[in-house]
Amino acid sequence: TYVVTENCIQCKYTDCVDVCPVDCFREGENFLVIDPDECIDCTLCVAECPAEAIFAEDDVPADQQHCTELNATLARGWKAIIERKDPLPDADDWNGKTDKLALLKR
Ligand code: SF4
Ligand code: F3S
């Protein structure tokens, strides 16, 4: 599966949603996750994300390993997002900031 990591938090550009052939993105208030049961590993979303937040499960950076389980857990409770929408208002300011996990709205 592919995994959305912390840099998506407070950005949520949603470009990833447009290219996913199986609509496996799930939406929270300030983060998206990938439903690992639906992702077919097509790789298309990786290049679309302006925050470079998406990785193959095997390539998730060491400090983002917790995100694999986080995607699986949140995907169970969040609804599908199938169309791109505007990013969050200060997305460009938040892009690249570290330690955003505390800001995650579940
Ligand atoms: Fe969707 Fe493909 Fe990305 Fe998986 S790798 S989330 S199937 S676009
Ligand atoms: Fe998030 Fe990147 Fe998609 S910021 S919403 S994973 S395009």
UniProtKB/TrEMBL annotation:
Lineage, uppermost ranks: Bacteria, Pseudomonadati, Pseudomonadota, Betaproteobacteria, Nitrosomonadales
Name the record gives this protein: Ferredoxin
Cofactor field: [3Fe-4S] cluster; [4Fe-4S] cluster
Residue stretches making up the 4Fe-4S ferredoxin-type domain: 1-29, 30-59
UniProtKB keywords: 3Fe-4S, 4Fe-4S, Electron transport, Iron, Iron-sulfur, Metal-binding, Repeat, Transport
Protein task: Ferredoxins are iron-sulfur proteins that transfer electrons in a wide variety of metabolic reactions.
Molecular function GO labels: 3 iron, 4 sulfur cluster binding; 4 iron, 4 sulfur cluster binding; electron transfer activity; metal ion binding
InterPro entries: 4Fe4S_Fe-S-bd, 4Fe4S_Fe_S_CS, 7Fe_ferredoxin, Fd_C, FdxA, RnfB_subfamily
NCBIfam families hit by this protein: FdxA_Protbact
Pfam families associated with the record: DUF3470 (PF11953), Fer4 (PF00037), Fer4_4 (PF12800)
